[in-house]
């Protein structure tokens, strides 16, 4: 559910090699504890004929179980940094933090779709190594970088500069405008950034 949600019970069973009954028991427990929920109608995807399958997704409570160590301490440190150095200090810290994650990613050398996709994959790999469970997926004339977990989401709720610095780094590495579509800090299921692979048509 973290990486591929919303997802059906059948899909979970297939991936984990569990029986339908076993999956339902686990899902019932997660639903009861508030760590999972049924996906909204807009998020669920009806495939084929017949009754639409139920889709499930992880909740903020469930994601929190994956680890947000030292959130209170980090938040206090960030507030102190702002008192001492102002907003510029927070922005500088956020940029340094992202650079520590993507420092070994080679910038896109050409603006071809293949090169941009390779760079997006490298960015996702770097963030996965840093604990963000990131991946990429093709969408229309672009690719999306999806971060399914964010170790600093609770802090980013108060300090959106952390999210802004990520988007800025993506744009610099890819050499193109990118659009942040969703963030975990804002309550979404994943941090999603759209990367266009086809440049917008200029005026005729």
What does this structure look like?
The chain is an alpha+beta fold. The protein has two domains: 7-64, Arc Repressor Mutant, subunit A (Orthogonal Bundle), CATH 1.10.10; 71-196, Muramoyl-pentapeptide Carboxypeptidase, domain 2, CATH 3.30.1380. Helix content is 47%, strand content 15%. The protein has seven helices and seven strands; from the N terminus they run E-H-H-E-E-H-H-H-E-E-H-H-E-E. It has helices spanning 9-16, 20-33, 60-64, 71-102, 113-129, 153-158, 161-174; strands at residues 7-8, 36-38, 55-58, 134-139, 142-147, 179-182, 191-196. The strands form two sheets. The protein has a four-stranded antiparallel beta sheet with strand order 4-5-7-6, covered by helices on one side. Strands 1-3-2 form a three-stranded antiparallel beta sheet. Helix 1 packs across helix 2. The longest helix has 32 residues, at 71-102. The chain is flat, with a radius of gyration of 19 Å. The protein starts with 6 loop residues before the first strand and ends in an 8-residue tail after the last strand. The model has no long low-confidence stretch (mean pLDDT 84).
How many DSSP E strands?
7
Q: Rg, please?
A: 19 Å
Within the largest sheet, what's the order of strands? 4-5-7-6
CATH class of the largest domain: Alpha Beta
Number of domains: 2
**In CATH terms, what is the architecture of the largest domain?**
2-Layer Sandwich
Summarize the helix and strand pattern as letters: EHHEEHHHEEHHEE
What profile does the largest beta sheet have? Answer: 4 strands, antiparallel
Shape by Cα distribution? flat
List the total number of helices.
7
Average pLDDT for all residues: 84
Structural class by SSE content:
alpha+beta
